[in-house]
Amino acid sequence: MSRDQRHRARRREPSAFRCRNCGLDVPTDAPGTAHRNHCPSCLWSRHLDDATPGDRAALCGSSMEPIAVAVRGDGEWVLVHRCAGCGELDLNRIAGDDNPLLLTRLAVKPLAQPPFPLERLARL
User: Fold this and answer.
1) 66-113: per-residue pLDDT in tens?
2) Where are the alpha helices (DSSP H) in the chain?
3) Lesser CB count within 10 Å: N end or C end of the chain?
4) Neighbour count for residue 65 (Cβ, 10 Å)
5) Dihedral of the alpha carbons of 40, 44, 46, 48, in degrees to the nearest 10
6) pLDDT tier for residue 2 given thresholds of 50, 70 and 90
7) Parallel, antiparallel, or unpaired for β 63-71 and 77-83?
């Protein structure tokens, strides 16, 4: 039994959850992260943590929409989620089994939908 599995057993955390967005049964064990709370298929999450990853202390519990991808200083990709209930933004580590197509779509979204008309670039 891994250290994370022992920790979950002590806290009586489930070993899987059902995604509120797409209905997939998601195991909480994931490559690359110790506190999975997002679906690897649709990337939606749930507002579970408050101050630190894995504390499961958030009172909101609403669904969190993946709105962007950010890159930390060490090159690690993280998902940016916005809570549909309270509007809080949260960062979640990318897991090794996350949907690469959706991750790429989030990463290029600012280029595909710029906040200005692309014709302006021709005038520069």
Assistant:
1) 999 999 999 999 999 999 999 999 998 899 999 999 999 999 998 888
2) 3-11, 100-112, 119-122
3) C
4) 15
5) 60
6) low
7) antiparallel
Per-residue buried b or exposed e for 24-57, using 16+ beta carbons within 10 Å of the residue's own CB: eebebebeebebbbbbbbbbbbbbbbeeeebeee
Question: CA geometry: angle at 1 spanning 77 and 30, to 5°?
Answer: 20
Domain residues of the chain, as ranges? 3-107
Q: What is the pTM of this model?
A: 0.76
How far is the C-alpha of 45 from the C-alpha of 47, rounded, in Å?
7
Lookup result for tokens 């049964």: 25
Q: From the centroid of its chain, how far is CA 28?
A: 13
